[in-house]
Amino acid sequence: MGELLKAAPVAVELADRFVAAGEQIALVGGSVRDALLGRLGADLDFTTSARPERTAEILRGWAEAIWDVGAAFGTIGARRGDFQLEITTWRTDAYDRSSRKPEIEYGTSLAEDLVRRDFTVNAMAVELPEIRFVDPHNGLVDLAAGVLRTPRSPEESFSDDPLRMMRAARFTAQLGIGIAPEVSAAMTAMADRIEIVSAERVRDELVKLVCARFPRRGLETLVETGLAERVLPEVPKMRLEIDEHHRHKDVYEHTLTVLEQAIDLEDDGPDFTLRFAALMHDVGKPKTRRNEPGGRVSFHHHEVVGKKLTAARMKALRFDKATTEDVARLVELHLRFHGYGTGEWTDSAVRRYVRDAGHLLPRLHKLTRADCTTRNKRKAAALARSYDSLEERIAVLAEQEELASIRPALDGNAIMAELGIRPGPVVGEAYKYLLELRMDRGPMTEEEARAELHAWWAARSESADEPGSEPGKGTGTPQ
C-alpha cells in the first residue's frame, strides 16, 4: 500500500494538513480497493473526523479548487493538481425504510463509518499519514477470494439502501467477482425494494454496469436475482424464446453473446450506445413469436416492436432523448442488412442503407457483425464476406458521391421558385420525389432535377384533374 501511495503523494500531503489541525483522516472505500488491485486512479476518497466546515477550512490555501455541493451529506470536494478529492466526515446514518434517503448523522470513529458501507471490499481504509491498513470486515480476504459480502447482514444493508443491490450487480461486472450466497439470497428476496429508488439512480448504475469490463456477469446477476424484472424486464423475458436462426441457444443467451461480440469490435473504449443496442436488439421477439409449419418459429417485424419497447424503457429510465433515439434506431435497423438476400446490393440499396443509418453507420456495422452467433463456420464466414462486400461498396460509392449527406440537386426554395408555389405539404412531396430519384440514379445535375420536377408536377396535375379526384389536390398554391 505504501508503494502504491507513492503514486499519489497528494494523499500524504493532505493527511499532514489534517493531522496538524488535530483531525484524523484515512483513504477509504473504492480508492483502497483499487489501490490493492494496482490501479489507484486520480479520484481519491477520504473519510475524516473533521466536520465539513472544518474540512473546507483545512483545504483553503492548499487545494486549487474547493466545492461544497455535497456538504449536506458531509462531503467536501477539492482539486489538487491532477487529483480530484472527496473528503467525507465519519458517518453513522439512520434510514427511513420507506425511502433510501438517510438522516445524516456524524460518527465518532472510523470503525462506525466502515460498518455502514455497502460491501466489505469497500469497507477498508488506510489511516494517514502513518499508512496503517484498517480492515475490520475482512475485505482484503473477500477481494482476494473474488466474492462480494456486506459488513452487516445483507438484509439490513439492502433495507437501508436498496440501490446497493444494483451496485452489487455492477461490481460483479466491474471487478469480475462473484456474490456470496447469502447476499444473492437477500437480493432475490428483497428485489421489490428497488422500486423505491429513483429511475435516474437506477439508470446511472445500469450505465456503469453495461460499460464495465464484464457486463455479462452483471446482467446475469440482475436476471438471476429478479432485479431485472423490476428495472429492465425486457431482458429476462427473452429467456424462453428460441431463436430460429440459432437453435442451440435461446434469445437471451444469443443476446449476451452478441453483446460480448459487439464489445470486441469497439475502437476507443466502452460505447454505451452500441452495447445497449446489442442488449436490446431482440427484445421485440417475445411479442412477435409465431409458430410456423414444420416446427419453425418466426419473429416477423420484431425489430419494429423492439424499437418501440427500447424507446419506452429508456424513457422510463430517464435517458436523454438523443441517446434513446440512437439506441432505438439501431434496434430498428439491425436486420436491414439481412433484407438484401445473398448480397446482391444495388447502388440504390447501398445509398438507402447509408442514408437510413446516418451518423450511426459505424455502430450499425459493428452491431450487424456482432449479431452473427451461429456455430456453423461456413455460414458465419459467408455472412462475414457478404458484409465485407457491403462495406467495400459503401467505400467505393463514398468516393464517387457524397453518401454522408445525400440530398437532391434542388432544395425546398428552388422547388418553390421552379413551380411557382408557396410553402406547404406539396413542397415536401416534391422534395421526397427528387430524393428518391437521387437514391435510385445517383447524383443528378440541377438541369436534370428541374426536368424531372416539371414532369412529376405535370403528371400530378393531370391526375388531380381526372374525374373523381379531390378538388384542387396536387395543384399547390400559386405565388
Automatic annotation (TrEMBL):
Q: Which InterPro entries match?
A: HD/PDEase_dom (IPR003607), HD_domain (IPR006674), HDIG_dom (IPR006675), NT_sf (IPR043519), PolA_pol_head_dom (IPR002646), PolyA_RNA-bd (IPR032828), tRNA_adenylyltransferase (IPR014065), tRNA_CCA-adding_enzyme (IPR050124)
Keywords annotated in UniProt: ATP-binding, Magnesium, Metal-binding, Nucleotide-binding, Nucleotidyltransferase, RNA repair, RNA-binding, Transferase, tRNA processing
Q: Where is this region: Disordered?
A: 458-479
Record's SMART domains? HDc
For whether the record's keyword set contains Methyltransferase, the answer is no
Q: Which cofactor does it need?
A: Mg(2+)
In terms of superkingdom, the source organism counts as: Bacteria
**From which residue to which does the signal peptide run?**
none
Q: Which PANTHER family match?
A: MULTIFUNCTIONAL CCA PROTEIN
Name of this chain's protein: CCA tRNA nucleotidyltransferase
Q: Which organism is it from?
A: Sporichthya brevicatena
